[in-house]
Amino acid sequence: MRASLAGVLGLDVSLLQSGMGGVAGAELACAVSNAGAAGCAGGYKLVDDALSAMLDRLAKGTDRPVGVNLIPEVVGPEELDRQVAQVLAETPEHIHLSLFGMPDDAVLDRVVAAGRKLVVQIGTVEDGVHAAERGAVVVAQGIEAGGHLLGASRRDELVAALRDRLPGACLVASGGIGSPAEAERALAAGADGVLLGTAFVVAHESRAHGYFKSAVTAADETDTVITDVYEIGWTGRRHRVLATAVTADPVQPKKFIGRTVVEGQPYLVPRFSSAVPTTATTGRIEEMALYCGKSCSAIAQEMSAAGVVAEFASVLPGAELAKNEKRTENNVGQ
Ligand SMILES: Cc1cc2nc3c(=O)[nH]c(=O)nc-3n(C[C@H](O)[C@H](O)[C@H](O)COP(=O)(O)O)c2cc1C
Fold first, then answer.
1. What angle do CA 87, 92, 94 make, to 5 degrees?
2. pLDDT digits (tens, 9 = 90+) for 267-278
3. Which of 37, 205, 245, 282 has a CA that sits 20 to 30 A from residue 315's CA?
4. Rounded CA gap, 3 and 267, in Å?
C-alpha cells in the first residue's frame, strides 16, 4: 500500500510548506508545523553562528516534524557539507532535511544514515527516480511554480510520469497550487500530498516585505514571467517572478537599489539580486525578485499560516489515514 505524506513524516495533514530563503524563517515554519502540516525554514546561505541561531529558534518553536531547507547548487559541495553537518549535530530528530535539487549521493546517504527524514524537490523524472531510490520523499516541481525552476514539465504530467515509474514512493506535487481544488487535481494525478510556496509568502508569519505580499494577493498568473535576470547570488537558473521594470528592461546598470539585514548582518542589494525583499529590506522593493507561482491567481488575501493549513486540510490525506497505515503495518507484523 502507498503511504501518505502525513504517514511518512508523522503529520496531521499531507502538506509541506516550502523552505524559502529570507521569507520562511523559524516563525513561519513552526506556525505551520504547530498547525499540523510540515513547516520548513529556509537555510539558503546561512552557516556557522547565523545557521545555529536559526536552528535554535526552530528547535525551540515546535516539537512537531519540521524541516530545514538547503540549496546544493547555491552553496556548492563544501559549504553544503558544513551546513548538513551543523543541522545533524545541532538539531533534534524531529527536524528533517529538505533539499532543492540534487546534491551528490553522499549527501543523501549521510542524511538517511543519520536517521533523518529527507525531502528532495526535483524537476525531472530521472532526478525523481534517483532521489526516491536513495530514500527521499520526492517533491515534483512543475513549471507553474514560483521561484527557481528545476525543469520544464507541467506539474501533473511530471507527477503522473513519476507515479508510473515509482508506484510505491511518497510523491508530493509542487507548483501552481493556490486552492484546495488545485490540490485535488494534483492528488488525482498521483500525488500523496502537496507543497505550497506562494500561498505561504502571504502568511502573517512570513517575512516577505509588505509590498511583496500585496503584489501577490493582487496578481493573477498572467502577471508572472519566467526570467533569468535575477542572477546575482544564484546564476544559471530561471525563476518565475512577478513582472517588474527589471524583467521588462534587463539592460539597466547593476547598481545598488536597496539595503537588507540577514541574521543581524547588513547587506547592500544590487539590482538583479536573487534575494527576495523581506521585512528588513528597504529601497526599490518594486524592482527586486518577487518570486511568485501561477498559484497567485487563487490567492486573494493574507492570512495566518494555520489558516492556510486549515483551508487545504479538508482535501488532503491526514492523520486518520496515517493511523490506518500504522494499524495495517502492525497487523502485517503479527
Ligand atoms: C518566494 C519564494 C522563494 C522560494 N525559495 C525557495 C528556497 O529557498 N528553497 C526551495 O527549496 N524552494 C524555494 N522556492 C520554490 C518552492 O519550493 C516551490 O517550488 C514553489 O513555491 C511551488 O510553487 P507555488 O509557489 O506556486 O506554490 C521558492 C518559492 C517562492 C515563491
1. 100
2. 999 999 999 999
3. 205
4. 44
- Please indicate whether residue 142, judged by its CB atom, sits closer than 6 Å to ligand 1: no
pLDDT tens figures, 133-185:
999 999 999 999 999 999 999 999 999 999 999 999 999 999 999 999 999 99
Distance 195 CA to ligand 1 centre (A): 9
Helix (H, G, I), strand (E, B) or coil at 65: coil
Tell me what the pLDDT averaged over the chain comes to: 95
203: helix, strand or coil = strand
Q: Ligand 1: distance of its center to the CA of 148 in Å?
A: 7
20 lines ligand 1 (CB under 6 A): yes
Give start and end residues of each alpha helix (H) in 207-333. 210-218, 245-248, 305-313, 319-333
CB-ligand 1 contact for 43 (6 Å cutoff): no
Q: What are the residues whose beta carbons fall under 8 Å from the beta carbon of 49, sequence distance 6 or more?
A: none
Q: Which residue reads 544514515 in cell numbers?
A: 113
The SS3 call for residue 92 is: coil
Which amino acid type is present at position 225?
V
Contact 101 CB / ligand 1 (< 6 Å): no
Q: Ligand 1: which atom is nearest the Cα of residue 121?
A: 11
Rounded to 5°, the CA angle 40-17-187 comes to 140
263-312 residue pLDDT tens:
889 999 999 999 999 999 999 999 999 999 999 999 999 999 999 999 99
**Dihedral of the alpha carbons of 10, 199, 47, 83, in degrees to the nearest 10:** 40
141 lines ligand 1 (CB under 6 A): yes
Give the residue carrying C-alpha cell 546575482. Answer: 232
Q: Which atom of ligand 1 is nearest to the CA of 201?
A: 1
Give one DSSP letter per residue of 110-176, joined into a string: HHHHTT--EEEEESSHHHHHHHHHTTPEEEEE-TT-SEE---SS-HHHHHHHHHHH-TTS-EEEESS
Is there a contact between 40 and 16 (Cβ–Cβ < 8 Å)? yes
